[in-house]
Design goal:
12 helices, Chitinase A, domain 3, Trigger factor, domain 2, Trigger_fac_ribosome-bd_bac, cell division, alpha+beta, Alpha-Beta Plaits, elongated, 4-stranded antiparallel beta sheet
Length: 439
């Protein structure tokens, strides 16, 4: 076997492989002899068919099978010999494939890039520092009460704290527009879910009242044809309801898994959950800064085959996330929608793997168990969760990836400068983009 390797572009390699004609011809002849033993041709007994008939009847088919097998095996030997690390499957085409001539075929493939992670010694990371105050806890308990609240109809004018049930239809320049009509719609007058100014104009309205609500659609409204347009909504108020929050009693506490201990135990449990959320959010914000810097500071080409696979995975996630039908063909979603995200994820994966190898990081049983025990704290039966992850091979592999990812981030943080930034609980748990907008 003769092998030559050519770099055609970036990560693409063109591997030309030659196999002696004798090797192919011998393999074909041997396969034909085996075929002759079981061949059925009219006028001949099985096993007694002359080889000339067998070659004429099966020669092309057998040669095609042999050549296909040889190309596969010789390709593997060639990339091993040349120490190539392929990313994805190759395209293999025979350039010379004739009896009596050396077989020549070309394998076009991509290889993994050589990734060397640059230093992050000059990287500055902001780490939010916050705690759960009694005020934060009280606010959260009120949120939980609101989640379990009921709405009771009242015979009075609506206040900002009330909910109204309305029929409405919207008009622009006297013409009704699509999507601007509904009946029996429940609307909280402090929910902020409708067009700015709509809810405020219903404060003071009573059941049975009809009124015109004048609003202007925002310039960034999702419907292009409505952006910045003045509109009039004809509204009928069907009923007014006030919110009745549940009392802080044992029945309420049981809704959140607190069976005994009363208010003190409930507050302690809620605070523990808030502290857990705070810890995870801070960790996530710090990690996002690290991985973003890692990707931005290390430039290299990524294999197209890996990006393509990642795009397919993102397509499937999108269909599941948005509740597409089970028979929906995810490949119908344009690849361009996911291209940038897929490239970033592939690049990050390669960088993470490079750090794992360079730092000789390992996800041993101790690290895996510690990680999953932390994960299981919020479940009713933590030990059941731990056993499920530790004894399920597929889940265990996911654990290993998560633990190694954490170790990579911790190692990079040890090299970078971490600046602690004091802030309130609310600010700390806000998504990073919201904090950036506020600044």
């Amino acid at each position: 076997m003769q092998v030559s390797v050519e770099t055609t572009s970036g990560l693409e390699r063109r591997v030309t492989i030659q196999v002696p004609a004798a090797q192919i011809d011998e393999a074909v002849e041997e396969r034909l002899k085996q075929t002759a033993k079981s061949a059925r041709i009219n006028g001949f007994r099985r096993g007694k068919v002359p080889m000339s008939f067998v070659r004429r009847q099966y020669g092309n088919e057998v040669r095609a099978e042999v050549v296909s097998e040889v190309m596969r095996t010789q390709y593997v030997e060639a990339i091993t010999q040349e120490k190539l690390n392929p990313a994805g499957y190759p395209e293999i085409d025979a350039s010379v494939n004739e009896a009596g001539k050396d077989l020549e075929f070309v394998a076009t493939l991509e290889v993994y890039p050589e990734v060397e992670v640059g230093s992050v010694a000059d990287l500055s990371i902001e780490k939010p520092v916050a705690s759960v105050s009694d005020e934060d806890l009280d606010k959260m308990i009120e949120v939980l009460r609101e989640q379990q609240a009921k709405w009771n109809e009242v015979d009075r004018a609506a206040t900002e704290q009330d909910q109204v049930n309305i029929d409405f239809e919207g008009f622009i320049d006297g013409e009704a527009f699509e999507g601007g009509k509904a009946e029996g719609h429940d609307l909280g007058l402090s929910s902020g879910t409708f067009i700015p100014g709509f809810e405020a104009q219903l404060v003071g309205a009573k059941a049975g009242e009809e009124k015109d609500v004048n609003v202007t659609f925002p310039e960034d409204y999702q419907a292009e044809q409505l952006k910045g347009k003045d509109a009039v909504f004809k509204v009928k108020v069907n009923k007014v309801s006030e919110q009745q929050k549940p009392e802080l009693d044992d029945d309420f506490f049981k809704l959140y898994g607190v069976e005994e201990g009363g208010l003190e135990a409930f507050r302690a449990d809620v605070k523990k959950n808030m502290e857990r959320e705070l810890e995870q959010t801070v960790k996530s914000k710090v990690k996002e800064q690290v991985v973003t810097a890692l990707v931005e500071r290390n430039e290299f080409d990524v294999p197209k085959a890996l990006v393509s696979n990642e795009i397919d995975a993102l397509r499937q996630q999108a269909v599941q996330q948005f509740g597409g039908p089970s028979n929906f063909d995810a490949s119908a979603l344009p690849a361009e929608l996911f291209q940038e995200q897929a490239e970033k994820r592939v690049k990050l994966g390669l960088l993470m793997a490079a750090v794992v190898e360079a730092k000789e990081l390992k996800a041993d049983d101790t690290a895996l168990r510690a990680y999953v025990e932390k994960l299981a704290e919020s479940y009713q039966d933590p030990q059941q969760v731990v056993d499920y992850y530790m004894n399920n091979e597929q889940m265990r592999q996911q654990l290993e990836s998560a633990v190694l990812e954490e170790q990579v981030v911790e190692n990079l943080l040890n090299e970078a400068t971490v600046n602690e930034v004091a802030m309130s609980y609310d600010d700390a748990i806000k998504p990073a983009e919201q904090n950036a907008e506020a600044a």
